[in-house]
Amino acid sequence: MPTKKKATKKKVAKKATKKKVTKKKATKKKVAKKATKKKATKKKATKKKVAKKATKKKATKKKVAKKATKKKATKKKAVKKVKAKVKRKPNAAFMKPMTPSEALAAVIGAKAMPRTEVTKKLWAYIKKNGLQDKMNRRNINADDKLKKIFGKNQVSMFEMTKLVSKHLS
User: How many helical (H) and strand (E) elements, i.e. helices and strands, does the chain have?
Assistant: First the structure.
């Protein structure tokens, strides 16, 4: 009987060592799989980086191409504008001399002049006397002379030309 016990002990010991060996192999395989997974993810990451760099390069090339096309387009527009300026003639109605009323003559002078000159002289008077509103630069604060023309204490610059036209004949 003692031999059977030894034999069974040996078998048990062999099985235990086999289990250990298989466990070691399994752990080695797991470690190897993890390492290959890490390598694969690293490769994927580097591939993505390379792909991103390539797309960035393509994008920069496209930007350069777009800039070049924009420059060409602006040159064409400039040529068209020059042609348009040559063709344009001033409107005769603006250039017709108008005589100002007495109230307006006190500000710009009594001599007959076109509407454009009247507006220029009015602005010169406003700037000289500092009548433009400090907070809202579109508004003009009227002094005694301008109150007679405008009929108000404060007028917007767009409303001014409409009110002045009433004083021209």
Answer: 6, 2
pTM of the predicted model over 0.85: no
Q: What HEC string does 47-97 produce?
A: HHHHHHHHHHHHHHHHHHHHHHHHHHHHHHHHHHHHHHHHHCCCCHHHHCC
Q: Tens digits of per-residue pLDDT, 18-71?
A: 666 566 666 666 666 666 666 666 666 666 666 666 565 555 555 555 555 555
Q: Who contacts 104 (Cβ-Cβ below 8 Å, separation ≥6)? A: 118, 149, 164, 167, 168
What tens digit of pLDDT does each residue of 106-138 get? 999 999 999 999 999 999 999 999 999 999 999
Q: How far apart are the first and last CA of the chain?
A: 143
**Residue 9 burial (C-beta neighbours within 10 Å; 0-12, 13-18, 19+):** exposed
| 115 close to 165: Cβ distance less than 8 angstroms | yes
Backbone angles phi, psi at 91, to 5 degrees: -75, 130
CB within 8 Å of 61: residues ≥ 6 apart: none
8 A C-beta contact, residue 99 and residue 112? yes
